[in-house]
Amino acid sequence: MSLAFSNFQDTHSIGCGALQEKTSPFHLISFVVVSVPLVAIDSVYYGRPVLAPLNIVLYNVFGKGGPNLYGVEPLSYYLINGVLNFNVVFILALLAPLAVEFQV
Fold first, then answer.
1. Distance CA 63, CA 54 (A)
2. Distance between CA atoms of 65 and 56, rounded to whole angstroms?
3. What is the pLDDT of residues 41-97, one digit of tens each?
4. Residue 104: pLDDT band by 50, 70, 90 thresholds?
5. Given a cut of 90, is residue 35 above it in pLDDT?
6. CA 53 to CA 29: how far, in whole Å?
7. d(CA 34, CA 24)
8. Do 64 and 71 touch, CB atoms closer than 8 A?
9. Where are the beta strands (DSSP E) in the chain?
């Protein structure tokens, strides 16, 4: 079992049908270790304080173009391309939630 999944299991429990979250110091430390360099480097590059991932979401999801900016395709397009590009791995990835659900 991977370390990240193990940490997720240790800090999240499922009860009453809802995800009950517990915050550990590891989450805060991870957030700071990733966020501080991200904001610092992006701010130097853009010349002003900026959080680039937030700007990407604001532009692509909530901007004028929205999801239509790059085109919208039917579900069959993504399924066919997933199989063509990733072959068996794509199919196994789609089946992975079932394996986790029925794990004893």
1. 12
2. 12
3. 999 999 999 999 998 888 877 877 776 767 778 899 999 999 999 999 999 999 998
4. low
5. yes
6. 19
7. 16
8. no
9. 12-15, 18-21
The residue behind tokens 């800090």 is: 11
Q: Which residues pair with 18 in a beta bridge?
A: 15
How far apart CA 78 and CA 62 sit, in angstroms, is 23
Q: What is the 3-state secondary structure (H, E, C) of 74-98?
A: CHHHHHHHHHHHHHHHHHHHHHHHH
Select from 29, 28, 24 the least CA-distant residue to 11.
24
Residue with tokens 């068996």: 88
- C-alpha 91, offset from chain centre: 20
User: Tokens in use for 44?
Assistant: 């130097």
User: What's this model's pTM, rounded to 2 decimal places?
Assistant: 0.46
